[in-house]
Structures are given as structure tokens and as C-alpha cells.
Amino acid sequence: MPQDKKLTNVNFSNRFRDLVERSGMTQKELAQSLGVSEGAMVNYKRGRIPKAEELVRISSFFGVSVDWLLLGKDDGGVKEDQSWRNRALTAEQKLDALKAAMEGWQLAMERWIKKI
Q1: Is the full-model pTM beyond 0.85?
Q2: Per-residue b or e along 98-111, where b marks 16 or more CB atoms closer than 10 Å to that residue's CB
Q3: Residues 73/67, Cβ–Cβ less than 8 Å
Q4: Distances (CA, A) of 88 to 33, 50, 65, 92
Q5: Residue ranges covered by each domain of the chain
Q6: What is the CATH number of domain 2-115?
Q7: Are 62 and 80 in contact (CB under 8 A)?
């Protein structure tokens, strides 16, 4: 049984690493999108199996099943109809961050102008 667990760890890390590479996102962006730390991302790539709720978030984000992540079973791989959704969600997050930064910059400029 321990041998099966080791195979699952290796296979999970390979599949996870492949999904990360295909996403085109940075590790930091993915960690934020998945709600995990960058350290957790490194651990997953090294073979650590995520907690159940993290596995569900990962599978949902990438549009794959938990079975495929852990065992390589089912239709496998990224479902194309989900990949556009993931990119759109990431773009929305980046836009929200940019808007927040711009609002902060605008407030700072207004305060500076009042001082002049």
C-alpha cells in the first residue's frame, strides 16, 4: 500500500506541474487564485498531496476532476470549456487590483494637490 501512495504523490505532482505550466500564470498568481500559499504550490510540485478542500479548488480552477489529479483516471486533462473561464477570472482579478491601485493613486494625488 505505501508504494501506491508514493506513485499517487509522484503522479499528482507531475499532473499539477503540467497544469501550472500550461496555465501561463506565475506561481504567485496561481497561489492567489487557488487560495493557497506559494510554499504550498512548491510542496505540491514536490509531491505533497493537498488537503481535500484544496484538491477541490484546484480541480475546479483547472477544469479537471479530483480523480484525474490524484489517479490520472477519467477523461483526463483540462476541459477546454473551462480554460477560457479560468483566464477570464484571472483577468478580472488583475483588473480589480489595478482599479484599487489607481483609486489609491488618485486619492494620493488629490491630497497632494490640496497641499499645494
Answers
A1: no
A2: eeeeeeeeeeeeee
A3: yes
A4: 12, 25, 20, 6
A5: 2-115
A6: 1.10.260.40
A7: no
